[in-house]
Specification:
Elements (H helix, E strand, L loop, with lengths): L19 H22 L21 E5 L5 E3 L2 E2 L3 H12 L7 E5 L5 H14 L4 E3 L6
Parallel strand pairs: 1-4, 4-5
Antiparallel strand pairs: 1-2, 2-3
Helix pairs in contact: 2-3
Family: Belongs to the ExbD/TolR family.
GO cellular component, one term: plasma membrane
GO molecular function: transmembrane transporter activity
């Protein structure tokens, strides 16, 4: 609120409200909302799968590869010496017709890197069916 005091003439007091600061604040708030609302609303549109936990049928030709928390691989309960031997074994079963499924059992406390590396080896060998063995949630 502005006020003009003069000693000469008797002028009236300026009793109007100065709205400039109010307009400045409102414009700043409007700009902030215009910038932040699209960031909050934008998400990547993805169709999420509907998952049903069906028990797997264990077949004798299926291969179960277990991955321990230390990154060791076990081929049907037999330890695989190194990663080159694992890749060689995977390449030998990849040419079998019909191709057997590879079931991966990863340790809960293990690093995902070891399981991911096993999936990569399966892809390099040409294995088309890979499954993960988990404990069903009740």
């Amino acid at each position: 609120m502005g006020m003009n005091i003069s000693s000469g003439d008797e002028e009236q007091l300026n009793s109007t409200i100065n709205t400039t600061p109010l307009v400045d604040v409102m414009l700043v708030m409007l700009i902030i909302f215009l910038i932040t609302i699209p960031v909050v609303i934008k998400t990547v549109q993805v169709d999420l799968p509907n998952v049903s936990n069906t028990p797997t049928q264990t077949k004798p030709e299926n291969i179960v590869i277990a991955v321990t928390k230390d990154g060791e691989y076990y081929w049907n309960e037999a330890r695989v010496a190194d990663k080159a031997a694992l890749l060689a074994k995977l390449k030998t079963i990849a040419v079998i017709n019909p191709q057997p499924e590879v079931h991966i059992r990863g340790d809960l406390n293990g690093r995902y890197e070891h399981v991911g590396r096993l999936v990569l080896y399966c892809q390099r060998a040409g294995i088309s069916k890979i499954g993960f063995i988990t404990i069903p949630v009740r």
